[in-house]
Amino acid sequence: MKYVLTAWISLLVQLSLFAQTALLLRPDRVFDGEAVHEGWGVLVRGERIAAVGPMGSLSAAGAEVIELKGTTLLPGLIEGHSHLLLHPYNETPWDDQVLKEARSLRTARATIHARKTLLAGFTTVRDLGTEGAEYDDVGLKQAIDQGIIPGPRMVVATRALIATGSYAPKGFSTDIEVPQGAEEADGHDRLIQAVRRQIGKGADVVKVYADYRWGLMGEAKPTYTLDELKLIVETAASSGRPVIAHAATAEGMRRAILAGCRTLEHGDAGTPEIFSLMKQHGTALCPTLAATDAISQYRGWKKGSEPEPERVQTKRRTFQQALAAGVTICAGGDVGVFAHGDNARELEMMVQYGMKPLDVLRSATSVNADVFGLPDRGRLRPGLLADLLAVDGRPEQTIADVRRVRLVVKGGKVYKD
Ligand SMILES: [Zn+2]
To answer: Are 379 and 34 in contact (CB under 8 A)?
Structure first.
């Protein structure tokens, strides 16, 4: 008995020492989520940040020192709009992924997507819909959190809500019921039930399609009424969850803003009036510039040798209008439309379309954390989660340097060295 007890105590001591493993990270500089500090470093203890400051102020006693000469240390990046259960549409069209790929196949791929995302330095993703794969994002998130597979922390939306008849796949015989990429629900009772069911099964956010391409000419048009959107927001808010809206038309955006949605995704056809309404209501924009860029190329645009298609020109113009109106800009590329692990593509495009690299880094860290309600990450501060990224170079000057990943740490654990 005494031996067993001693063994237990010794095990517990070892476990607590393991949990308290300290890392001293010595880069050239630190971007703390808001500003750049030359000569700073970070001390990690267990899964949290213990100290951040000038290197001389950090005690190396008992800590494993990781020399990161030539690097900038950043908070782990936050992807604002991903679909880990999708893969690029030039590999397999979206319709075929939804209708022809088994959910087991999609999940197998998603585990690889999760690893690539983490190793690219994105330690959190807001995953906005399984696109026909039911609640499989919930299990994927659990597999990551339980340490079964490497991947980012996930904020999940599960199935997302669509107005009956508005979404896709479409264009099939009227005689058959075609599975849809999200959950159809309308009207008072069915909407309340759908929101609560998705939350009950694990949704951290509720996603709604405020518009979609169901106009007479196949163009994007609003779907839900303002009252339906308000009901969705009110129902989700009881549980403390935000609603985020796919909204590409001006009217769809207007309804989503007035209903109280937290972020608008895409925002392609926003106008100066709509963006000033967003500013007034504190609604953030997740512009998904890289998705438009990727889809235009899948449709045949030879980028670099041909003029920009109208859709890309519109995207650039409306993004600049949103910036001019002072709208809060999240960083989220709709990755899945393009390759997982290539998340930096959105950050590069934000710079190409007119944002300063430092502001883009803020969007991908502290701004995303604030807008998504994640106060435990997005900054390098004592007490926050030790989610960190070291890259060669100076990404606050040259944004592409975020691709030069030297080290990724999630919850104090080193994933790439
Ligand atoms: Zn999306």
So the answer is: yes
Around ion ligand 1, residues with a beta carbon closer than 5 Å are: 334
Q: Which residues pair with 78 in a beta bridge?
A: 124
Q: Do 383 and 48 contact (CB within 8 A), yes or no?
A: yes
CA distance 180 to 198: 16
Q: What was the pLDDT predicted at 13?
A: 46
Q: Where are the beta strands (DSSP E) in 175-287?
A: 183-184, 206-209, 211-213, 220-222, 243-247, 263-266, 284-286
**CA 95–ligand 1 middle distance (angstroms):** 14
Dist. CA 52–CA 41, nearest whole Å: 6
Residue 149 CA, ligand 1 centroid: distance in Å: 24
Q: Ligand 1 centre from 16 Cα, in Å?
A: 41
User: Beta-strand (E) ranges in 76-205?
Assistant: 77-82, 122-127, 153-156, 161-162, 183-184
> Ligand 1 centroid to 336 CA: how many Å?
8
Cβ atoms of 44 and 27 closer than 8 Å: no
Please give the average pLDDT of every successive group of 10 residues along the chain, which has 417 residues.
55 52 97 98 98 95 96 98 98 98 98 98 98 98 98 98 98 97 98 98 98 98 98 98 98 98 98 98 98 98 97 98 98 98 98 98 99 98 98 98 98 88
Task: Return the axis-axis angle of helices 310-324 and 272-281, rounded to nearest 10°.
Answer: 40
pTM value?
0.95
Residues 255 and 218 sit within 8 Å (Cβ to Cβ): no
Decide if 319 contacts 289 (C-beta within 8 A): yes
φ, ψ for residue 227, nearest 5 deg: -65, -40
Helix, strand or coil, per DSSP, at residue 109? helix
